[in-house]
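Action item from last week, closing it out:
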Amino acid sequence: MADEFKKGDRVEWNTPQGKTIGKVKQKLTSPTDVSGHHVNASQDNPQYLVESEKTGKEAAHKPESLKKLDHK
């Protein structure tokens, strides 16, 4: 099973521009909209709302797409 993340965890993920680093804002466990995109999250299929350190933009990601980093 994929990692569990908590609020404040520093994570990285891949984007078309390369790796991006940010922080987990919250665990999403119900369908919602994030930055104009529908996120089909559920208790059985959670996603994580993360904020990019570089741009400050928020996006939802599946746990398997995130890698936890050590805090600086």
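Closing note: The chain has one domain: 10-68.
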